[in-house]
Write a structure and sequence with these properties.
single chain; 122 residues; alpha+beta; Beta Polymerase, domain 2; seven-stranded mixed β-sheet; globular
Length: 122
């Protein structure tokens, strides 16, 4: 939830938290998905998440795509954060790939709210 709240504070949108704990082959317990409107915002969001998590003692994540202009992954082992441009998010649709996950978004106040995503690929 922390990573999603930090992304929200940097005005990332379409925030989605995927609870993968009931999916046997899942690579993590949670995915956090966040969309950004620019490369500058993508960098600001990823840097803010990294900084906040370090301050809380979560350690250094494995970071993939740091020089990318469309998708950065911060891997904290149990939580994997995907910060993407709006275009990359629409193209890869990770929420449909992991459609069996329980999904949550954040209210404006930062509280988790359950959501349902259509699973059809049409």
């Amino acid at each position: 939830m922390l990573c999603a709240r930090v992304a929200q504070s940097k005005l990332a949108h379409d925030l989605l938290i995927l609870d993968l704990t009931n999916i046997e082959s899942a690579p993590a317990e949670f995915f956090v998905l966040a969309s950004c409107d620019s490369v500058a915002q993508l960098r600001a969001v990823t840097e803010a998440i990294d900084e906040q998590c370090k301050q809380l003692g979560m350690g250094d994540p494995r970071i993939h795509g740091k020089s990318s202009e469309s998708w950065v992954v911060l891997d904290y082992f149990d939580v994997v954060v995907h910060v993407m441009t709006t275009e990359a998010r629409a193209f890869y649709t990770l929420e449909r790939l992991w459609g069996d996950a329980d999904m949550y978004t954040l209210t404006n106040a930062g509280a988790a709210k359950s959501v349902t995503i259509r699973k059809s690929l049409a």
